[in-house]
Each structure stands twice: as C-alpha cells, then as structure tokens.
Amino acid sequence: MPPSVLDKALIGVAGAAGAGILAWQTQFPWIKYDLQIIQMGRRLLKFRDEFMSSYLVNKFEKHVQTHPKKAMVIFEDCVYTYEFMDEQANKVANVMRELGFQCGDTVAMMIHNEPAFIWTLLGLQKLGVAVALINVNLRFKPLSHSVFATEPKAFFVGAGEDLLHSVSDVLEDFGGLPVYVQGLTPGQVPIGLHDFDSLFRRALPVRPDPSLRAGMTPDSTMAYIYTSGTTGLPKPVFISQTKANGIGSAMQIVGLDADDVIYTVLPLYHSAGGGIGLYGLFDRGCTMVLRKKFSASHFWSDCRKFNITLVQYIGEIFRYILAQPQHELDSVHKVRAAFGNGLRKDIFEAVQKRFKIPLIAEFFGATEGVSMLINIANRPGAIGRVSPFLNLLDPDPKALVKCDYTTALPIRDKNGYCIKVKPGETGLFLSKVPDIALAKGDLVVYKASKDSNEKKLVRNAFKEGDLYFNYGDVLYLDKDYFVYFHDRIGDTFRWKGENVSTTEVANVVSMPDFIHDANIYGVRIPGHDGRAGMAALTLNEGERITPERLKEIYKVCEDDLPSYSRPLFLRILPDAVLTGTFKQQKVELVKQGYDPTQVKDDLYYLDAKNKTYRPLTPQGLASFLQSRL
Questions:
Q1: % pLDDT > 90, the chain
Q2: What is the mean pLDDT of residues 15-28?
Q3: What angle do CA 369, 54, 117 make, to 5 degrees?
Q4: Choosing a second label site near 398 at 20 to 30 A (CA), which of 115, 136, 441, 568?
Q5: What confidence score (pLDDT) does residue 21 get?
Q6: How many Å apart are CA 397 and CA 400, to the nearest integer?
Q7: Number of H helices and number of E strands within the chain?
Q8: Which of 182, 231, 197, 204 lies closest to 86, judged by CA?
Q9: According to the model, what pLDDT value does residue 584 have?
Q10: Is the pLDDT of residue 261 over 50?
C-alpha cells in the first residue's frame, strides 16, 4: 500500500511548515531525511486521485487503446505487446463466461512466471472474478488446503510437469472442483482434469463488455495472496481492488512511468513480483522483462540487453549476483533504481560499490499489512524511517515498542499501554490501522481465520480505542530515526524468500508415531539471508533414532512441505518439552543453533541426495555449510 504520508492532510501540513523545517535542521539534523519523504509524498499526491479512481483491469485496457503495439512483456526473448496480451486475456474471459463464471466468483490459479499467468489473471479480472494465487512450490496438504481456503469454483493449473504432478497427487482431495490444466494436448490430459487449452483455442479474442464486471466495487476482492501469517498452513490475505491499486502505485516512489522497463525475477504469486511489479505494470503501462526463475549469471546481461531501468529484488538475489566473477561491464547499465527488501547492510554497500545503482530503495511491509516503510536516502541497511516529526504529521503513525520475545506481543506499562523504545534500542513494529480500513467494521486481514486475524491486532496500544497492526518483526532504531530489520519473532521465520510457519512444519515433522513433540525454529547460516529451519525433537518414552526413522522423517517432510520449509537440521532432545514452556525453551535453542561443539544432543543434517538426515559432526559441518552456498 502507499505510505500513509501521502495523505492530503499530511502534505498540507508539511507544505505550511516548510520554511520552519529548514530552520530546524541545525537543531535536528535528521529532519532532512524527513523532507525527502515529504517531497516524495508531494510528487505522488499528483497521482493519488488517478490511481484510486479506476480498477487495474480498466487501466490495462486503457493502455491497450493508447499504445497497442508497445511491448508489455518480454519473456524468453519473445515480445508480447499490449494488444496481444489483451487478446489472450479476452479469450480467457470468453471461455470463463461460457463456463458460467461471473463477477464475484473466485478461481484458484497456480501458474509459473510466464505470460500465461498475466493474461489468465487479466482475463478473470475482465469478468470481475477474484483470483487466489497459489504458490507453485506447494504439494499435498498445503496445496489442497490453500486451494480450498478461498472456496473457489475452479482451479487453474499452468504448464509444467511439476505442477501437473503436484495436482495429480492430491486430485482425490478436490472432489468435484473443476481443475483446468494448461500446456497439454487433449491426449495428454489425465482423467479427472479438464483441458483448458482446447477451449482457449476455440475462443474469440474480442473484448467482453465491461458491464459483465459492473458489480465490482473498490472493496471487491481482486486477489488472494498467501502468507504464513503467524501459525498454521498458508493463509489467504484479501487484496481488494483498492489495495491492489495501492500496491501497484508503490514503485511510483522511485518514479515508475510508462517509459520504464522493469526486470522481474520474483514469483508472480507473491506480493512483490506479482503485486508491486505486475500491478505497477498495469498501473503505469510500462514494459516488464519477466524470467521464469532468477539466474545470477544472466542478471546483468539481461539488464544490458533489454535496457532495464528498474529492478526488483530480495536481498538473497544480490548476494548471489555478488558471488559471480567480476566483469568490466558490471557498472555498465541503465538501471536507475532497485526496489525491494531484505538487503543486509554489508550487501547493500557492496552492491552500491560494484554495480553503481543510483538508488537502492529498500522497503518494509507485509502482504496483510496496513502501511509501508521506505528508505529513499540510500542509507545502507535501513528499511525506512519512524521519526517523531513524520509521526506528528501522519494520521496513521508507526511505533517501535518493547515486546516479549516468548509471546511476540508488546509489553504494557502500569497503565496498560505499549512502551515506545528510544533511539539505539530495538522494538516490535506497530502501525496504526487507518480509519478508512475500519469504516465498515473491524479490520479483516485473513479469510476464514478469525484467530490469526485477531493475533495481528493490538488494541488500546497508546490510548483507549485505538487499533494497531502488529507486524511481528523487531526493528532497530538509530539516532537519525532510520530503522533496520533486527529479527522476526513469534511463529514464523523467512528462508529462501518465503515465510515459513513453525506450526505448519511442526505438524508435519511430528507425524511419525515415535515422535512426541517437534519444536521448530530458524537458525542463521553464514552467507545466507533469513533463517534455515531446525527441528528439536523429543521422542516417545523408550524410543530412539535409527537410520530407518531418519528416512521416515525425511519422507514426511518431502511429501508434505515445500522445499524451503523442510528443516535443514534436527536436534534430538533427551526430555519432553512441556507445553507451558515450549516457547521459552525455543529462545535458548535458537541461541545454541546447530554447532556440534556447543550442542551435546545428537544433531543431524538434511541429505537430499540420499533422502535422509545424517549425523552432523564438527568435521562434516563445514562441508555441509559450504554446500549450501
């Protein structure tokens, strides 16, 4: 969503105070960074009425009329114009209309990064059909759960044997839900699945009348983007038409316009690649160079070949790029800004020095969140600002507060209110829920998950009746009021660019009947961003670990967890962990990690080649860590 400092009231106050701010700089040198944010807000305010006045699908159709022959998507050296993408989307819409789908329905969709993802999404939007965007890495229970969580009337599966196999494995779970597959000939479609391509080929490319989506409103659901939330299986987050517009405007922070060429290697089913990048494409009418998967060796050659001006990233992408051999053309490119998150300070500085990108705009947010932080000052490692001055002007202020690491909740003072931290301290990040989000009742974040929804809210944070959103992340506040990511607490951690739910992993790992309990947490691996999964297991009384049982643990993880969620390390605890102290012991386990010289319990590491877990020794640790780089 756009930063709330874009609010007209804030900009008006800031404009009136402009002269005074300049005088304050001597006493408050950090205020110059606030001025940057305010100036950015003034620039974006010009677009506010525009991006809030229309739906993204309408904007796309307007771009088709304005420049039909312009390249919209470049994929695997093929150019897909706005006109062509519109025709393909029209065919999708016409097929779906013939099948009886209409405005207000929901369809689940699992498609790799490719043009078909985009035109399928647009085709469904032409009818006002909401789209649940399924992670292509999911299998078994997480897959079937994610599909049914939004109560769809059909499931679209894109091209690729991996997707077909994943769906075939759980086909019985779908019951009577129609499953339409792409990328197959009629003779290749398995029994129980429907051949979408045959219908698609016969459909006309004429645009369906916009009246078919006349029932769409700003509050209508455009899409569901999944997050691990804080517990359990993936949860669908409502992305309304209004919120989609806000997400699509995010890269206007770095001046995205119709002449830009965006480079997107992030998955389109997530809110970064598929929200900020793809919705930004719909919003501005620019060009996107899309890759199915990220390739460090092709990154800069692609940027030069296609005259990329804006790149999207997560921190891990740049770490892999830096590991490539240095080249004399490293700084020869037209990239004027990189927009993303998760870039550590040391990587930030190395990227600036080697590749000389004029602006690295690091942001902080969450799919289910109500605000965004942004660093437009090129301050290495910073993810935004939480300053007293901006909070004074902001109708939806932010705060870092003291918290209990064992509960992931704020600590309250004697009056029952949250306690703000001071510069030089860390605190849990909260953001006030905008009044507009509460206009029709309490904030609803997740579909069909009331308990998880309530856990994201902090009531009566600083005064009676206020409502703040709890991001579950601890940030560090420096003397200039820049904030830096410090840690994720509670029941999630991030690995390989994905959120991992500890509860979801624990439910799977504890399935073998010899395991009494599974305590899941994230541990740091040198040279990697985020945290890798580790499971501390307690066995039933009298049981012991054997090679066969290690294979069994590996098997349930392989079957029921996506690759990024599978624990890389196991630790066998001698005593059961009581429920009442479960989280308290987790803190100490995280500190101890997987170092066999420090941990006296038996340790094991994931051996994907042999499909098992193997004993971890001091001698084998260095080799294993090296293999993960």
A1: 56
A2: 57
A3: 70
A4: 441
A5: 53
A6: 11
A7: 20, 30
A8: 204
A9: 38
A10: yes
User: 125: which residues sit within 8 A by CB, 6+ positions away?
Assistant: 55, 56, 57, 131, 213, 222
- Say if residues 250 and 372 touch (Cβ distance below 8 Å): yes
What's the average model confidence in pLDDT over 96-117?
Answer: 97
Bridge partners, 194 (sequence order): 180
Three-state secondary-structure class, residue 523: strand
Whole-model pTM over 0.70: yes
The DSSP-derived string for 438-457 is GTTSS---BTT-HHHHHHTE
Nearest-angstrom CA–CA distance, 543 and 577: 16
- pLDDT tens digit sequence for 28-87: 778 888 888 888 777 776 666 555 668 999 999 999 999 999 999 999 999 999 999 999
Task: Render 382-404 in DSSP notation, one character per residue.
Answer: EEEE--HHHHHH-SS-EEEE-EE
More confident position, 511 or 207: 207
Residue type, 184: L
**What burial letters (b/e) apply to 4-43, b meaning 16+ CB within 10 Å?**
bbbbeebbeebeeeeeebeeeeeebebbebbeebbebbee
Cβ atoms within 10 Å, residue 385: 27
Nearest alpha-carbon partner for 107 in 90, 126, 132, 134: 132
**Taking CA 239 as the corner, what is the angle to CA 237 and CA 244, rounded to the nearest 5 degrees?**
145
Distance CA 143, CA 135 (A): 8
List the structure tokens of 431.
């953001």
Asked if pLDDT for residue 437 goes beyond 80, the answer is no
Give me the pLDDT at residue 335, please. Answer: 97
CA distances to 6, 11, 319, 376 from 40, rounded to whole Å, are 8, 10, 29, 9
**Mean pLDDT, residues 181-190:** 90
Position 244 confidence tier, pLDDT thresholds 50, 70, 90: very high
Cβ atoms 256, 286 nearer than 8 A = yes
How much is the CA Rg of the chain, to the nearest whole Å?
A: 25
Cα 411 to Cα 409: distance, rounded to the nearest angstrom: 7
Contact 343, 318 (CB under 8 A): yes
Is the four-CA dihedral 574, 575, 581, 583 of positive or negative sign?
positive
Q: Which two tokens stand for residue 389?
A: 């001055």
From the list 101, 338, 317, the residue with the least C-alpha distance to 215 is 101
Q: What's the rounded Cα separation, in Å, for the pair 577 and 570?
A: 15
Which positions ≥6 away from 580 have C-beta within 8 Å? Answer: none
Torsions phi, psi for 393 (to 5 deg): -85, -25
Task: Indicate if the alpha-carbon torsion angle 87, 90, 96, 97 is positive or negative.
Answer: negative
Please give the domain boundaries of the chain with CATH numbers for all domains. Answer: 56-293 (3.40.50.980), 390-488 (2.30.38.10), 492-627 (3.30.300.30)
- At position 418, the amino acid (one-letter code) is C
| Residue among 164, 175, 115 at smallest CA distance from 136 | 164
Sign of dihedral through CA atoms 33, 39, 41, 47? Answer: negative
Given a cut of 70, whether residue 255 has pLDDT beyond it is: yes
